[in-house]
Amino acid sequence: MQLGQRAGQTVFKDLLESDTVNIEKLKQYVQKQSIVTEFKPLCWKILLDIKSPYRATRRYVDQANCDIYKRLHSTLTTCQIIQNDTSISQQFLSMYLLDSHAIKIPITSTKEYESFLSTANFICSFLDNDNEQRLDVIAECWFMTCKMYDKFIHLTRRIAFLRYHVGKIAQQEFVYESKLLLHLNTHNIFVSIPENWLKDGFQLIRDDFSLLNIWEKFIAGSEYIFVFLTIHILHYCRGKLLSLYSTKEIIQYLIDLKIDDQAACEHIAIASVASWKKQGNSLLSFPAIP
């Protein structure tokens, strides 16, 4: 293990195993370093306010979360909205709606909530969750899904900030890509960044590990990381973008975009974090538009 990795492991271990986790220090360190793999689940749960930062109250909070999960699940099972063959993501969605938007139960169409379902599947995969695991693990998986989905929905309400700063930063990042920059400006693409990119947390990046490295910066407090992620996605797609001459075609291409190649996903994530650190990771939220 390299010296830097060993030091990172020690810092995360010391922070997470203390009787009281210092949330601000944890956020600051996550902004500087990637979370060590073995500590990712616990770190995420603490940052998302699912696990108590106080060791003395952790068991109480875990039990309270389980009780909430069981109450919602039991209600929907009794009402026969949840069946034996209902997928775990669909169960999570029904419980989320009962907890926050009871008027929308039962669900007639899940199209509006495709982002929730994809986030649920992603979180379940992240926690290696399935129906046979302990109730407390499934409950935490549901809470994490709801927290992340709500964060992404809030992010869509600030899409004007993202679009503005993508356009601004692109002038610097694409300084040696004048043809691409002119093409994107000509078709007003910076003000047309798809809302669905934000709504599901940029799951167009199909490599789980790469996306986790981006999401952890976000849950540590930085919306601004998505500005740089957008820039590097556009740069990755420059060949295809330059081959399209209709604004409608370009926007539709971006809406439908999925990046499956693992090496490409890793490169985009690494480059995004590097640019974010270089140009202002201290700017955690989107700066105000002048």
Structural class: mainly alpha
Give the N-terminus to C-terminus distance in angstroms. 46 Å
The H-level CATH homologous superfamily of the domain at 156-284, spelled out, is: Ypt/Rab-GAP domain of gyp1p, domain 3
Q: pLDDT below 50 for ≥5 consecutive residues: which ranges?
A: none
Number of helices: 15
The CATH class assignment of the domain at 156-284 is Mainly Alpha
Shape: globular
In round numbers, the mean pLDDT is 90
Q: How much of the residues is beta strand, in percent?
A: under 5%
For the record, the CATH architecture of the domain at 156-284 stands as Orthogonal Bundle
**Major sheet details:** none
Helix proportion of residues, in percent? 55-70%
Organism: Adineta steineri
Main location: cytoplasm
GO molecular function: GTPase activator activity
Protein name: TBC1 domain family member 7
Present the secondary structure layout:
Elements: H1 3-16, H2 23-32, H3 40-47, H4 58-78, H5 88-100, H6 114-126, H7 135-156, H8 159-173, H9 178-186, H10 195-199, H11 208-219, H12 225-236, H13 238-242, H14 247-256, H15 262-280
Question: Mind explaining what this structure looks like?
Answer:
The chain is mostly helical. The chain has a domain at 156-284: Ypt/Rab-GAP domain of gyp1p, domain 3 (Cyclin A, domain 1, Orthogonal Bundle), CATH 1.10.472.80. Helices cover 65% and strands 0% of the residues. The protein is globular and about 60 Å long. The N and C termini lie far apart (46 Å).
